Amino acid sequence: MDAVEPPGRRRARARLRRRGRKQVPWVLAIPGVAALVVFHFVAIGFGSYYAFTNWNGLTHATWVGFANFRSIFGDRTARAALWHTLELTGCFVVSVNVIGLVLALGLNRAVKTRHLLRSLFFAPVAVSPLAVAFIWQWIFDYQGALNRLLGSLGLASWKHPWLGDPHWAIWTILVVMIWQFSGLAMILYLAGLQGISEEVAEATLVDGASVWLRVRAVVLPLLAPAMTVSVTLTLIIGLRVFDQVMALTQGGPVDATETLATQVYKQTFFAGHFGYGAAFALLLTALITCMALTQLVVLRRNEARL
Question: If 51 and its partner were Cys, which of 114, 174, 278, 291 is the partner (CB 3.0–4.6 Å)?
Fold first, then answer.
């Protein structure tokens, strides 16, 4: 006859089983957390250290303090790269969110082809930015599709070296970025619109509110969480712009499209100034972090007021 297990021992064994089940998810997460720490945070730590040195990738790194940052803010090209980054980001965030919101409002209705149109507008997001930029390079080339179209329409005087003009080159990059990522903002706003109950929309119709009044007074406040996510993501994408610049203009003509990201690449791998390039990377990281967090806090406060 089997011995009866004391109640105290059964309770202890049950506690051990529950504790083991709670610890299993943490154990499974250890490899991923370790990889994140080694390849992300440790790399950021080393990069931050080299930003304060004159390391050239070969010899021993010598501590120079804030000399690299003084050189950045004292160099005309570096200051222009910072301005171009902020200029592109500001125009990109505003444009892509406005276009994405308009597309979302239009395709949220019972349009027969709305699913097809949603897929078409979102498709560029899934394509590599480098591949998209090469396609647009062919369009903006002097012998490319855009100038050929202008010539066929009898507008030959409008032909322009779009990528070779210092005044127009940065705006061609902006056009490419807006074309590729408007679908991302559209999807985020569509997700927000799906959360708005039909009763709310029907109530505004019964009250006789105009379309603009419904959007301004009802839809936009309820879309505040989606807007927070969309604006934050597009801000980060804009500040990190690199592929489009390198594929279309490589920072030219005459440094007219240099950004902080292209300066990181050029100073590090072309000029061999690894310490100076790390300073650019640290500046870009700090800029993205500060602007993203500030924007997130401001938008969250606005959400709380609505």
Answer: 278
